[in-house]
Backbone:
């Protein structure tokens, strides 16, 4: 895979990150969510689940793909750190405040997506290896 092709895999992740940054840049008085309990936490978990999925897509074909558990930990930590930077960023936006529960929702959303990815047999197999062959090799 060429360098240009590898860079294209980053585009969805960068678009999601840009969307999160844009949304968190909106002043607090311009946000209007329906009055549903914990809807903001559900939205945080959802968008960070999408960030995790796009990050997993970005590392496909990478040599780390052969180690799904390492990738899983990396992706959850990456999303958590991006969530932390997003909460810090919100501290500078009028009408917005950082919230540790938002960060928790971000991390949970990313972790759920990564766990789903780990359970998906064709998502975690080594590139170029039939799905059952990689399991047979691990089994013995």
Residues:
């Amino acid at each position: 895979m060429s360098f240009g092709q590898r860079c294209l895999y980053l585009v969805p992740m960068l678009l999601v990150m840009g969307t999160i940054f844009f949304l968190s840049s909106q002043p607090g008085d311009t946000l209007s969510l329906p009055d549903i309990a914990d809807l903001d936490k559900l939205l945080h978990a959802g968008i960070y689940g999408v960030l995790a999925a796009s990050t997993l897509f970005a590392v496909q074909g990478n040599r780390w793909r052969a180690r799904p558990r390492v990738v899983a930990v990396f992706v959850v930590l990456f999303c958590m750190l991006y969530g932390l930077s997003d909460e810090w960023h919100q501290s500078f936006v009028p009408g917005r405040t950082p919230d540790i529960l938002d960060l928790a929702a971000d991390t949970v959303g990313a972790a759920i997506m990564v766990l789903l990815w780990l359970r998906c047999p064709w998502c975690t197999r080594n590139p170029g290896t039939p799905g059952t062959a990689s399991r047979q090799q691990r089994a013995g």
